[in-house]
Design a protein that fits this description.
By secondary structure, this protein is α+β, with helices and mostly antiparallel strands. It has one domain. The chain is built from two helices and eight strands; from the N terminus they run H-E-E-E-E-H-E-E-E-E. The protein has a five-stranded mixed sheet with strand order 1-2-3-4-6. The protein has a three-stranded antiparallel sheet with strand order 5-8-7, covered by helices on one side. A hairpin with a 5-residue loop joins strand 3 and strand 4. The chain starts with 10 loop residues before the first helix and ends in a 5-residue tail after the last strand.
């Protein structure tokens, strides 16, 4: 990827958003907590593990994309290892993931973490890829 193009604008991520019918937060909505935003939006944040998640229009180094789907469910977008993805996707047992905002090391698999599966989030590490530990509960199928 070129120096000027952020990973957030990759075709893979764009396809994810368009498939969910999402729009970027508007300028007048920037900085608002995701709970105060309408459904069907996405944006970028440096505070993905706080009680209030402010969203902004421009991605920056190691920021997280957070989406609010049409039904109102919040989703964290990031990268995990293939092994972590298999555990999350299988969903039979609780699992702890290291979610990275950008590909890092073995974490190259794009994933959407549903808020309904999150038991606990810890703040990003702010070093070594800026991973955020997320404790995931089993899927209800």
């Amino acid at each position: 990827m070129s120096q000027g193009k952020h990973i957030a604008w990759s075709s893979e991520r764009e396809a994810l958003r368009s498939g969910s019918g999402l729009r970027l937060v508007e300028e007048k909505e920037e900085g608002l907590d995701i709970s105060r935003l309408p459904a069907g939006v996405y944006g970028f944040t440096g505070s993905p593990a706080t009680g209030e998640i402010p969203l902004f229009r421009q991605p920056y180094f190691q920021c997280y994309e957070v989406q609010k789907l049409a039904g109102g469910e919040v989703v964290w977008i990031g990268y995990v290892s293939d092994q972590e993805y298999a555990q999350y996707d299988h969903g039979a047992e609780p699992v702890t993931l290291d979610l990275y905002p950008e590909p890092h090391g073995e974490a190259k698999k794009l994933v959407c973490i549903l808020q309904s599966r999150v038991d606990r989030r810890r703040p990003p590490t702010r070093d070594s890829g800026n991973s955020m530990k997320i404790e995931i509960g089993p899927a209800t199928r």
